[in-house]
Write a structure and sequence with these properties.
The protein is built from 13 helices and 4 strands. With 335 residues, the protein is α+β, with helices and mostly antiparallel strands. Helix 4 (56-67) runs parallel beside helix 6.
């Protein structure tokens, strides 16, 4: 093997070794940390590589925190990163809280971040309050008139209750409940329109931010409008329902009357049938009486004469009644 080939092999070997070394040991990152005044050893960086932690995701936030005068060490940042936290976001929040003189420790910021909340946004809301606008909230006054209200709620993050505290939907729901109860206690919708600030004062006094991650600073009525006449609509619906009930009862009574009439007709037909049946028994009874000697021939003739006289009188009476009705007609001149 010639000296030139030996030299080339040595150069290649050195390059490979340096590449592996630089891949394992982030020398450039270590130099940046040392230049920024952050005390970190090469062994710590190699240990991060072995633990499959990207050193830049820990060292760069550490440099940022050190430059800002924060008391944060490398173990805290690496532990938070291994727990699935956002190290850079937590450090930014700590710096912002430090600048704003807010009492926020690393443990609390890490807990807020691991709870799934944006700790940096929470610190910003503590410094600059946020305005939450509710949707249209409909309420009904005592006189039955619907009132629609839009409120703007100014809130500030409460860092002490951010972990485990309720969010914005709870604030909106509680404000809506307060508006409904306040409008519902008003005697007239005109009273609500005349004094809309009464709604905000009453709702604000109820302590709606209890148990939430926010502190309510103010509640302002952004818009208010008059809706439907709920009371009149309810009365109309009640009247229509009463009308339908009355119609149903009347139909029930009519059906009962019709059924009773049919029953009476059936009873009359039954009675007529009994009369016809009884009349049919008369000749048989007369024949039986003649046969048994209970009735003589003269008695039978007398009975027939009486029947004839009765029938004749009935015909004469009918004729007289018809004549009287004709004489009393409207075209007959009076004497």
């Amino acid at each position: 093997m010639t000296p030139f080939v030996m030299f080339v092999l040595i150069v290649v070997l050195v390059i490979v070794v340096l590449s592996i070394f630089l891949n394992i040991v982030p020398l450039g990152l270590w130099i940046s940390a040392v230049a920024a005044g952050v005390k970190v050893s090469i062994g710590s960086l190699v240990g991060m590589r072995l633990r499959r932690v990207r050193p830049d995701r820990v060292i760069r936030p550490l440099i940022k925190a050190t430059k800002a005068g924060m008391d944060v060490n490398i173990n805290q940042l690496e532990s938070h990163l291994l727990s699935g936290g956002r190290v850079d976001n937590v450090v930014d929040a700590l710096i912002a809280a430090h600048r704003a003189n807010l009492d926020l420790t690393f443990e609390r910021a890490a807990a807020i971040d691991l709870a799934g909340r944006d700790v940096f946004e929470a610190v910003r809301m503590s410094v600059t309050p946020k305005v939450i606008e509710t949707p249209w909230i409909a309420a009904v006054a005592v006189n039955g008139i619907e009132v629609k209200v839009i409120a703007k709620v100014t809130v500030r993050t409460n860092l002490g209750r951010l972990v485990g505290g309720a969010g914005e939907p709870t604030i909106i729901a509680r404000v809506g409940e307060g508006i409904v109860s306040t409008v519902g206690a008003s005697s007239s919708h005109k009273e609500v329109l005349e004094y809309p600030d009464r709604i905000s004062h009453t709702v604000l006094e109820k302590g709606l931010d209890s148990g939430t991650a926010f502190e309510i600073l103010s509640i302002d009525i952004a818009d208010i409008d008059v809706g439907r006449n709920i009371g009149a609509n309810l009365q109309i619906e009640q009247a229509e329902a009463d009308k339908q009930i009355a119609q149903a009862k009347a139909e029930e009574r009519r059906a009962t009357a019709v059924a009773r009439e049919q029953e009476m007709k059936a009873e009359v037909v039954e009675m007529q049938a009994k009369v016809v049946e009884a009349e049919a028994q008369v000749p048989l009874a007369v024949a039986e009486a003649l046969r048994n000697g209970n009735m003589g021939v003269m008695d039978y003739y007398n009975l027939e004469n009486k029947k004839s006289d009765t029938k004749m009188r009935e015909n004469i009476g009918a004729m007289n009644l018809e004549g009287l009705m004709k004489n009393a007609g409207p075209d007959k001149p009076r004497k």
